[in-house]
Amino acid sequence: MNRSWLRVYFIMGSNNTTRNPLEVLEEALQGGITMFQFREKGKNAYTGDMKLDLAQKMKQLCHQYNVPFIVNDDVDLAIAVNADGIHVGQDDAKVDVIKRTCPSDWIIGVSATNKDEAIQAMEDGADYIGVGPIYSTKTKSDAKKPIDIIGLAYIRQAVGDLPIVAIGGIGMTNVFPIIKAGADGVSIISAISNANNPRSVAQVFDAYTSYAVSFR
Ligand SMILES: Nc1nc(C(F)(F)F)ncc1COP(=O)(O)OP(=O)(O)O
Ligand SMILES: [Mg+2]
């Protein structure tokens, strides 16, 4: 997996915006996001054919901009739309099962909050780990206690050069310390999905992360 795909990793579901999610995604793609995760869950989330249809349209958009399209949690949906990969948490499908039953070229991401989860994900063969929550977040109602920059640095030290994307309460002002602490990129939901101008916010994250990574 190309770790630079993690640099500006946008995550969104239909309930993370009051606008048409396809318009928000296209604006974020125009602004330079480097990877996208379709995370359709929680209050008023789409299900069934509506979820399938939205996933197919989002994947098409991402591929118009040569951006990988990842599905959160839902392995069956990811297979149905021929996604580029899946992201699973500690309570979701296991990596070894995914590797046995899903396309061999899939990007497989795993959530990790501590060193043990990170090392386990690496040993299981995850292509990247989503480390956090770095800061407190309102987006994920069942988020664990924030680990802050020090928790990220500790995990970076434990996993060598395994690709890491940081997640949880990330805004433009804390990009630099997160990259300096060892993340290859930042994962953003509401900073882009709730923005008046998702394109310009994505552009700022693109510029800030590129600059920060160049110092690494
Ligand atoms: N969805 C995520 N994406 C990332 C990514 F690495 F992509 F930034 N990291 C962490 C999560 C959280 O994943 P999980 O713990 O299963 O909770 P949920 O399914 O509610 O998102
Ligand atoms: Mg999950």
Automatic annotation (TrEMBL):
It comes from Gracilibacillus marinus. 4-amino-2-methyl-5-(diphosphooxymethyl)pyrimidine binds at residues 37-41, 72, 111, 140. One of its GO terms (molecular function) is thiamine-phosphate diphosphorylase activity. NCBIfam families: thiE (TIGR00693). This is Thiamine-phosphate synthase. Belongs to the thiamine-phosphate synthase family. Binds 1 Mg(2+) ion per subunit. Condenses 4-methyl-5-(beta-hydroxyethyl)thiazole monophosphate (THZ-P) and 2-methyl-4-amino-5-hydroxymethyl pyrimidine pyrophosphate (HMP-PP) to form thiamine monophosphate (TMP). Pfam families: TMP-TENI. Its cofactor is Mg(2+). InterPro entries: Aldolase_TIM, ThiamineP_synth_sf, ThiamineP_synth_TenI, TMP_synthase. It catalyses: 2-[(2R,5Z)-2-carboxy-4-methylthiazol-5(2H)-ylidene]ethyl phosphate + 4-amino-2-methyl-5-(diphosphooxymethyl)pyrimidine + 2 H(+) = thiamine phosphate + CO2 + diphosphate; 2-(2-carboxy-4-methylthiazol-5-yl)ethyl phosphate + 4-amino-2-methyl-5-(diphosphooxymethyl)pyrimidine + 2 H(+) = thiamine phosphate + CO2 + diphosphate; 4-methyl-5-(2-phosphooxyethyl)-thiazole + 4-amino-2-methyl-5-(diphosphooxymethyl)pyrimidine + H(+) = thiamine phosphate + diphosphate. Gene3D superfamilies: Aldolase class I. It comes from the Bacteria. Signal peptide: none annotated. The keyword Oxidoreductase does not apply. Pathway: Cofactor biosynthesis; thiamine diphosphate biosynthesis; thiamine phosphate from 4-amino-2-methyl-5-diphosphomethylpyrimidine and 4-methyl-5-(2-phosphoethyl)-thiazole: step 1/1. 2-[(2R,5Z)-2-carboxy-4-methylthiazol-5(2H)-ylidene]ethyl phosphate binds at residues 137-139, 169, 189-190. Mg(2+) binds at residues 73, 92. Its EC number is 2.5.1.3.
